[in-house]
Write a structure and sequence with these properties.
InterPro entries: ARM-like, ARM-type_fold, HEAT_type_2. This protein is mainly α. It is built from twelve helices and no strands.
Amino acid sequence: MTLLQELSTAKGEKTQASNINVATQCLASPTRLEEIAAGLHHPETDAALIADCAEVFTKVAEERPELVVPYADALLPLLTHKTTRARWEAMHAIALIAHLIAERITPLLPTLRTIIEHDKSVIVRDYAVETLSNYAKAGGETAHLAHPLLREALTLWVGKHRARALKGLANVVTHLPSLAFEMSGLVEDYLQDAKGVVKKAAKELQKACQNAH
């Protein structure tokens, strides 16, 4: 049985258990990711299998993101896939390695902006903002490029993605301390947010601003 045959869709399962098992096998033997990468190139009609393969890359990236870097070019085209699950699994995997593939993310910034502005899936948009956040970790140049997009994401969709955007802005300030004063004023509006995850992200940004002074 090939790894593709062990995926949840191939086995007729509705849970992610089989995909997690395949990811575990790939972590133990990273060369087997080649088999999963091949699954990303199935015809568009086989969207469920494509999404399963992208999920395997996500699970591997959660443990060892460097193993997924060689497959970034296979994952990136899926960010605009017609099937929502394929988009969100691919975006999640890319978010987890964004700081390691900054040179591949830079030309895609307009695409990420469009996705954050228009994609109907909250999950896809969440991971697109997280991609920007982790991209900003890579250095001063990426922080500079991510900054305006993260500022926009902060208030888009009635602020639905504000927690991830605030975390990203903390990464920006870490590399661009000259923005600390500006960000110190901005973060005040979020320190008493009703959502705990937002307050936590706001405190991270506040701390980054304090450390930058």
